């Protein structure tokens, strides 16, 4: 209620992404950019095994700020992407994300605002250090008035003869919120010289990540670990960056280091669990998720994951009861849709295609933008011989999620069967673009090229 932890509050809005004027190398070297995560470097699982978000990253085991924000290339793409954790849709604008519980009641005060900022003499308050700090917290967090907060911080720093590291950090936070990342970097570096603090290192790393310099951020964290050995937030920061860069094996190592220091770290347990699940070790993943259950985590996502692990580990007695519990605990329609989608997979696994059809339909009832469900329904329609319905469903899936290779590949196969070779070739090209290592796509392309050569 009282304090926002700025370190994790980091949702990038559409405005911030599209109107970002920071010059960044157009073609970055592989492994040095988050905007173009290199495929498969460092042993990351391929999209055939682990689904990816629109920004090309594997879906993580723990939804946190910035895992959802992708890098849409055009405004249209940014707006059209569905707003779920499964895809990479940015929220409309980040400034709206900073309103906290307790502040709304102050905004709608019938007697006017709590403090009238325009009438304050900031110079006077800047000379009373304790009062100035309290006032800054209020202006920055409650009023979200970055300009006045920055003016106050600048005056107070001057009054402290530039010797108070706290004020430098606050100026850095203001610059960061205003999108002036280079200025923020200078302030945080200056503050670190005066006072070594874990928080300041985390703020500085956020600046580097926003400037798309993950390697610099990694080096910063590693230097921080030399000065604060075993600091969980720093190790976790390194693991997150590796995960965002698709270097899953290194990320898993660092998450294990996090658990050595703090054995109840939910994010680390969840990420290691999901990594084992996608590495075809559902029994080991099950142990991690059960550990979360023992720790008192009790939500829809956890039971959903337990159900999937039980199914793939062939413990069928527990599968349906886990999914039932997940449906019971679902807080919104998107979560319900996830559970029905997974139940559809279970139905396909046991060969009950009618049940699978019903489950995927229920998925779409709850979340109309679920591209994966459209794709799977199309496959079921194909089995029934309904070519036109399948084609329409696949078209919907590929327009909703252009980053998925499956709908494109299925369109290519479908078009090739009915003899529309040109359409098949264009769809195969899109599939290859989304997942260059897909063998079936390459074989289809080869066949089509031979056809065209014969013509």
UniProtKB/TrEMBL annotation:
CDD domains: TTC8_N. One of its GO terms (biological process) is renal tubule development. GO terms for molecular function: RNA polymerase II-specific DNA-binding transcription factor binding. The keyword RNA-binding does not apply. SUPFAM superfamilies: TPR-like. It comes from the Eukaryota. The keyword Transport does not apply. GO terms for cellular component: BBSome; centrosome; ciliary basal body; ciliary membrane; fibrillar center; photoreceptor connecting cilium. This is Tetratricopeptide repeat protein 8. It comes from Geospiza fortis. The gene is TTC8.
């Amino acid at each position: 209620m009282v304090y926002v932890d700025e370190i994790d509050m980091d949702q990038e809005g559409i405005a911030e992404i599209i109107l970002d004027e920071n010059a960044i190398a157009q073609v970055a070297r592989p492994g040095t950019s988050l905007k173009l995560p290199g495929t498969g470097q460092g042993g990351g699982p391929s999209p055939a095994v682990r689904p990816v978000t629109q920004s090309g990253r594997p879906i993580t085991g723990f939804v946190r700020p910035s895992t959802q924000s992708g890098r849409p290339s055009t405004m249209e793409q940014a707006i059209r992407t569905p707003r779920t954790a499964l895809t990479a849709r940015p929220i409309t604008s980040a400034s709206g994300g900073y309103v906290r519980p307790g502040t709304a009641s102050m905004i709608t005060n019938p007697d006017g605002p709590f403090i009238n900022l325009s009438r304050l003499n900031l110079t006077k308050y800047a000379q009373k250090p304790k009062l100035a700090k309290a006032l800054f917290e209020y202006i920055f967090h409650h009023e979200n008035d970055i300009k006045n907060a920055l003016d106050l911080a600048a005056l107070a720093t001057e009054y402290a003869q530039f010797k108070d590291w706290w004020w430098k950090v606050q100026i850095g936070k203001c610059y960061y919120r205003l999108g002036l990342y280079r200025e923020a970097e200078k302030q945080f570096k200056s503050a670190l010289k005066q006072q070594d603090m874990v928080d300041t290192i985390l703020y500085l790393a956020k600046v580097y990540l926003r400037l798309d310099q993950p390697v610099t951020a990694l080096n910063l964290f590693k230097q921080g670990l030399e000065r604060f050995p075993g600091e969980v937030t720093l190790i976790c920061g390194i693991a997150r960056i590796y995960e965002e860069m698709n270097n899953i094996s290194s990320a898993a190592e660092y998450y294990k280091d996090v658990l050595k220091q703090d054995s109840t770290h939910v994010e680390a347990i969840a990420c290691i669990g999901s990594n084992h699940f996608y590495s075809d070790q559902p029994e080991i993943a099950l142990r991690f998720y059960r550990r979360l259950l023992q720790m008192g985590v009790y939500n829809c996502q956890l039971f959903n994951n337990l159900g999937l692990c039980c199914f793939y580990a062939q413990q069928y007695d527990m599968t349906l009861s886990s999914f039932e519990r997940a449906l019971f605990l679902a807080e919104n329609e998107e979560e319900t849709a996830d559970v029905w989608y997974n139940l559809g997979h279970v139905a396909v696994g046991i060969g009950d295609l009618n049940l699978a059809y019903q489950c995927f339909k229920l998925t779409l009832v709850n979340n109309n933008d679920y591209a994966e469900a459209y794709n799977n329904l199309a496959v079921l329609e194909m089995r029934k011989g309904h070519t036109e319905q399948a084609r329409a469903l696949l078209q919907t899936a590929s327009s909703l999620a252009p980053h998925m290779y499956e709908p494109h590949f299925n369109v290519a196969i479908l078009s090739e069967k009915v003899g529309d070779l040109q359409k098949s070739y264009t769809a195969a090209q899109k599939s290859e673009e989304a997942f260059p290592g897909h063998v079936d796509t390459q074989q289809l392309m080869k066949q089509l090229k031979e056809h065209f050569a014969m013509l």
